[in-house]
């Protein structure tokens, strides 16, 4: 497997280099130089395969000879050891639950796969690997649990203080060992900017072996394709082959993975980019003007991203042709009031508790479906986090129906440990150099 930079297609690096360096020096993002098409025989019988079997097939197609098949199979089975069920809510509406991993969020797919890929390539006698990650909510917890105890690695997580839920913060700050948390006085965009500055700093690059665990890392993006194929397999079992995916979108890694899956041959009728008030992409799809803006805090905090990094990957996938992307992706945006109303509507209609991100994806699917009254398709909206992570958002009658997972109950007895810091790069740099 070879990869290039979205800023320079002449760059050509091997998979391990892209994994460990995470981001090219030209500040682009790595992309595979070839997106393989899965064989028709596999796709026609996809309903016969389990999630680990599908994940191995997709991973081996993308990675080529980067990891021997036997090793890759074991790696995938270890990383993807939980389910992602598509639960039927009505005749044509399904919720794809992606929160059955250890951190209760869809990002377990990427974080667990990435940590095992890095451990596979990392030699015991090599320099300590410093993994940097900015989080707006769920990424940090998934990375922390994915890398916890992995030898010769050290994880530093930056999160915006006061802008993640209590449970999300506990997942960041109660691990110890090789996991460090920094509470930044600012926004997620500030956290992400500090991480990007670290990668472009010559002194840090010389003295520390830095890599990223955000979705800018290609090894996090690849496993997110797995559950699109698996969701389609579940729809095939239901006799449905026309599928629309509604994707709650923040940094747009999730949607980028879905579009990569479609490039690999996954038959998808439509993708929906569902956002909160941070509507950079829906505005671009409507107006043709790509204009980032400071992120706005919302109830769907994992989507509070004003400058989504992975949008450049999506445009690169389709040769910078906005008209092609417009046909594949419909953009919708919703405010906090609409999000709360959606949570209540889903509960009343289906007796189902949805987190705010999931509720936004459902709203977008509802709006899209209403505009296609004579079309028959399965609408799958992605549920990206367990509702227990957002207890303050739900009305009492809904909150009472949320089952608290055992790992959350255990965290409540632990002490939070985080370093408070201003959104200042020199301060952050000094911290890293003194670790």
Account of the protein in words:
With 435 residues, the protein is of the alpha/beta class. It has a domain at 78-104 and 220-399: 3-Layer(aba) Sandwich (Rossmann fold). Helices cover 43% and strands 17% of the residues. The protein has 20 helices and 14 strands. The chain has helices at 15-21, 40-44, 51-63, 69-79, 107-121, 138-147, 166-173, 188-200, 202-207, 218-224, 226-237, 253-263, 280-287, 311-317, 322-328, 336-350, 356-370, 396-399, 406-411, 425-433; strands at 2-5, 8-14, 30-32, 86-90, 93-97, 129-134, 153-160, 179-185, 209-212, 243-248, 270-275, 329-333, 378-383, 419-422. It has a six-stranded mixed beta sheet, sandwiched between helices. A five-stranded parallel beta sheet has the order 9-6-7-8-14, with helices on both faces. Helix 12 (253-263) links the parallel strand 10 and strand 11 (270-275). Helix 3 (51-63) crosses helix 4, helix 5 packs parallel to helix 6 and helix 5 (107-121) packs across helix 10 (218-224). The protein is globular.
Strand and helix layout:
Layout: E1 2-5, E2 8-14, H1 15-21, E3 30-32, H2 40-44, H3 51-63, H4 69-79, E4 86-90, E5 93-97, H5 107-121, E6 129-134, H6 138-147, E7 153-160, H7 166-173, E8 179-185, H8 188-200, H9 202-207, E9 209-212, H10 218-224, H11 226-237, E10 243-248, H12 253-263, E11 270-275, H13 280-287, H14 311-317, H15 322-328, E12 329-333, H16 336-350, H17 356-370, E13 378-383, H18 396-399, H19 406-411, E14 419-422, H20 425-433
Parallel strand pairs: 5-13, 6-7, 6-9, 7-8, 8-14, 10-11, 10-13, 11-12
Antiparallel strand pairs: 1-2, 1-3, 4-5
Helix pairs in contact: 3-4, 3-11, 4-5, 5-6, 5-10, 6-7, 10-12, 12-14, 16-17
């Amino acid at each position: 497997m070879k990869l290039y930079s979205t800023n320079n297609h002449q760059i050509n690096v091997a998979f391990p280099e892209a994994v460990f360096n995470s981001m090219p020096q030209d500040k682009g993002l790595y992309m595979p130089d070839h997106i393989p098409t899965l064989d028709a025989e596999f796709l026609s019988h996809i309903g016969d395969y389990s999630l680990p079997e599908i994940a191995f097939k997709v991973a081996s197609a993308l990675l080529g000879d980067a990891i021997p098949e036997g090793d890759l199979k074991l790696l995938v089975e270890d990383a993807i050891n939980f389910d992602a069920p598509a639960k039927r809510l009505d005749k044509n509406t399904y919720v794809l639950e992606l929160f059955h991993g250890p951190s209760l969020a869809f990002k377990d797919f990427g974080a667990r796969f990435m940590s095992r890929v890095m451990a596979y390539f990392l030699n015991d006698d090599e320099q300590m690997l410093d993994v940097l990650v900015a989080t707006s909510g769920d990424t940090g917890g998934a990375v922390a649990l994915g890398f916890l105890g992995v030898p010769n690695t050290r994880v530093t997580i930056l999160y915006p203080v006061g802008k993640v839920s209590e449970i999300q913060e506990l997942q960041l700050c109660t691990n110890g060992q090789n996991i460090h948390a920094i509470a930044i006085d600012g926004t997620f965009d500030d956290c992400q900017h500090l991480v990007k500055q670290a990668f472009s700093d010559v002194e840090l690059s010389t003295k520390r072996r830095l890599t990223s665990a955000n979705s800018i890392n290609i090894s996090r993006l690849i496993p997110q394709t797995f559950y699109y194929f698996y969701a389609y397999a579940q729809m095939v079992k239901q006799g449905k082959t026309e599928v629309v995916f509604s994707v709650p979108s923040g940094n747009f890694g999730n949607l980028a993975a879905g579009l990569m899956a479609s490039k690999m041959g996954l038959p998808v009728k439509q993708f929906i980019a569902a956002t909160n008030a941070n509507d950079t992409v829906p505005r671009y799809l409507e107006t043709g003007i790509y204009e980032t803006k400071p992120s706005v805090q919302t109830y769907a905090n994992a989507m509070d991203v004003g400058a989504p990094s992975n949008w450049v990957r999506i445009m690169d996938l389709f040769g910078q042709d906005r008209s092609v992307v417009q046909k594949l992706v419909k953009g919708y945006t919703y405010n906090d009031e609409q999000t709360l109303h959606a949570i209540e509507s889903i509960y009343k209609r289906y007796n189902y508790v949805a987190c705010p991100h999931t509720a936004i994806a459902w709203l977008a699917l509802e709006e899209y479906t209403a505009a296609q009254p004579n079309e028959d398709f399965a609408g799958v909206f992605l549920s990206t986090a367990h509702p227990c992570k957002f207890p303050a958002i739900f009305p009492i009658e809904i909150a009472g129906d949320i089952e608290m997972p055992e790992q959350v109950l255990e965290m409540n007895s632990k002490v939070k440990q985080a370093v408070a810091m201003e959104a200042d790069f020199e301060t952050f740099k000094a911290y890293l150099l003194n670790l």
